[in-house]
Structure formats: structure tokens, C-alpha cells
Amino acid sequence: VDIYSRQSDHPYINETGTLTVHFIDVGQADSTFIELPTGETMLIDAGNNDDGTLVCNYIKDMGYSRIDYLIGTHPHEDHIGGLDDVIRAYDIGTIYMPKKEHTTKTFEDVLQAVKDKNLKINTAKAGVVIFADDNLTSEIVAPVNQNYDDLNNYSAVILLRYKDISFLFAGDAEKAAESAITADINADVLKVGHHGSSTSTSPAFLKKVSPDYAVISVGADNNYGHPDSTVLNRLKTYGAEIYRTDELGTIVFSTDGREINILSSNDIN
User: Fold this and answer.
1) Coil, helix or strand for 112?
2) Closest Cα partner for 243 from 221, 268, 210, 211?
3) Burial status of residue 57 (CB atoms within 10 A of its CB: 0-12, 13-18, 19 or more)
């Protein structure tokens, strides 16, 4: 089957040789769908339990029936809530999650979906290479340690590079996890940690990343006060252009590995 022959009238349809990263608007939650230039796909998180159908339909509308790389950054519901729906709905390649259990029905639902399809979970931790060739690499740069008090610090932090352009997806990693990262995490685009909370995006971390663009996945008028004004000001100080799902809806970055194009739901509707 020709991986480039899928039919779709979706306005964001990927072109061969293009990397397209969809920061799906799932409110106060996280879900990022990635079309790799190889024709393969990656999904990082799938929102809350109620977002499973939305995420599945978004991917289906893109013309895909398979997710080659599926990552649940950590076991909180606003990240893995819809993963069980995704696992049941799609042909799944490799699954990565941190080696950290959680005593919730949401977590159990994900494990059950994995078991029902005879899949296995690979441990997401620093040093794991998801894929690598000359022009396209993805590696997990955190968690470095396995003895954190806060579940957020077990977040899989993922670096994705295509030619000259790189993305860093920070999950909900907080300052303790950020400061433990030893890899080179300089990136053009930062998916800001923990919905822009003050727990994350420390000055030291931001200096290492030095992003041109910062994407915040956050719900409008959420109860947490996300994104934090200190973090927003910090990002601006470091020269990052800020894109927020509560203001723009779904945000889509596409790149040929040299230049970046940005679209949002507001541009399409």
C-alpha cells in the first residue's frame, strides 16, 4: 500500500517530505498528533476521557488508520484519558509510557486496551531513541530519574528533529525533572510544560531550549489560572512567540525541515 495515497479533503493534509505537528485543542488537556515526513504517524497523549472520540475523529479525518508511535507522557487523566479509545480504534505500532503506575480507572482502562490488543508498553525514559536516521530523529530526554514525589515529573519529554528544525514536547514535567535533563534540548518549538503552570518552564530550562515558538495547550477560563503570567512573561523575555489553544483552537506547525509554517483553527474557519 502506498503510504502517501490516502484520500482526505482535510485542510491540513500533509505533503510528502513535510513534518506536520497538530496541537489539538482538547481544552485543559494535552494531545499532539504528528505526521512524519516518512508517512508514519505519532500521537503524544490523547486528552481527557471525554476527548477520546474527538482525537480519534481528528486522526480519522486526516485519512489515517494507523499510529506508528503512541506516547502517554504520564498517567494523569488529562493526558491519557482518551488513549484507550485511540488504542481500540487504530492499528498501533509502538507504545511508550513511563514506568509509573497510577491507581485510577483511567489508567486501568489504558492497560486493559493494551492487553486486549496484545500490545506491550515500552518504558519511556531518558536515552530511549524512538527512531533515528540522518534527517529525522526522535528521542526521549526525560524522565532522567525514577524517584520523584510528583507524578508530573515522570513525564516523557520528547525531542523531535527534522533536518534544521526541532520540537520539544515537555508533557507536565516540572522544575525537578527539567533540571535533570542532560541532553541537548535546544529547539525551535517548545510545547510548554504543564499547560503553562508556574511549576514548569524554569529560566534555566528555557535558556537551554531557547525556543522561537512556544505552544501552550490550555482550556479557556480554567480553574488553575493556567497559563501563569510569570511563565508568559518569561517566554516573551526569551523572545518566544506564544500560541495558545484557548485563543486559537487547534494549532498546526508544518515544516520542510528548513522553514516553519503555522496555521490555527481561526485561519481555517
Assistant:
1) helix
2) 211
3) exposed
Q: What is the mean pLDDT of each run of 10 residues along the chain (269 residues)?
A: 35 69 95 96 96 96 96 92 96 94 88 96 96 94 92 95 97 95 98 93 96 95 89 95 95 96 74
51 CB-near residues (< 8 Å, 6+ apart): 26, 27, 29, 31, 81, 82
| 265 DSSP assignment | H
Query: Is the distance from CB of 34 to CB of 19 less than 8 angstroms?
Result: yes
Strand 157-162 and strand 165-169: pairing?
A: antiparallel
Is the Cβ–Cβ distance between 37 and 254 less than 8 Å?
no
DSSP state of 228: P
In the structure grid, which three cell numbers stand for residue 27, read together? 481544552
Tens digit of each residue's pLDDT (9 = 90 or more) over 195-205 = 989 999 999 99
Helices (H), the chain: 52-61, 77-80, 83-89, 105-116, 175-180, 203-209, 229-237, 245-248, 265-268
Work out the number of other CB atoms within 10 angstroms of the CB of residue 91: 10
- DSSP assignment letter at 194: G
- pLDDT single digits (tens) 42-95: 999 999 999 999 999 999 999 999 999 999 999 988 899 999 999 999 999 999
Model-level pTM?
0.93
d(CA 223, CA 236): 24
Length of the chain as a residue count:
269
| Residue indicated by cell numbers 505552544 | 215
The angle subtended at Cα 97 by Cα 92 and Cα 102, nearest 5°, is: 120
